[in-house]
Amino acid sequence: MEFDQIPQWFLALEPEEASFLKNFALCSGSLKEIARQYEVSYPTVRLRLDRLIQKIQVNDRREEEPFAAYIKSLAVDGRLDLETAKDILDRYRREGTPTPSH
């Protein structure tokens, strides 16, 4: 999969969230099995999954901004490495769009 084809919601995941999703898939969606693996209670796993679902829904609805598309295109063209592109987009999202000062 090319970088520009990676869904926005997936790029927004923290490494531990991506790992949780991977384990969830490998356990065929069994929350009981995930709870056993993580050595936590079923309600704890359910809460974590619910929060992850909310995060995915919020990021999936967000329309991609032109700046994000530009950064992704630089990475796809090889003019910017993937990790640097992700760092730039993360910072941009945290800080938002700068407003001109007059």
Structure description:
By secondary structure, the protein is mainly α. It folds into 2 domains: 7-62; 64-97, no CATH class. The protein is built from 6 helices and no strands. Helix 3 packs across helix 4 (42-61) and helix 5 (66-76) packs antiparallel against helix 6. The chain is elongated, with a radius of gyration of 17 Å. The model has no long low-confidence stretch (mean pLDDT 84).
Q: Could you give a short description of this structure?
A:
This protein has 102 residues and is mostly helical.
The tally of strands reads 0
Q: Please count the helical segments.
A: 6
Cα-atom Rg, whole angstroms?
A: 17 Å
Can you tell me the number of structural domains?
2
- What sequence of helices (H) and strands (E) makes up the elements? HHHHHH
- The poorly predicted ranges are none
Largest sheet: none
Shape: elongated
List keywords for this structure.
102 residues, 2 domains, elongated, mainly alpha, 68% helix
Topology:
Elements: H1 8-11, H2 15-26, H3 31-38, H4 42-61, H5 66-76, H6 82-95
Helix pairs in contact: 3-4, 5-6
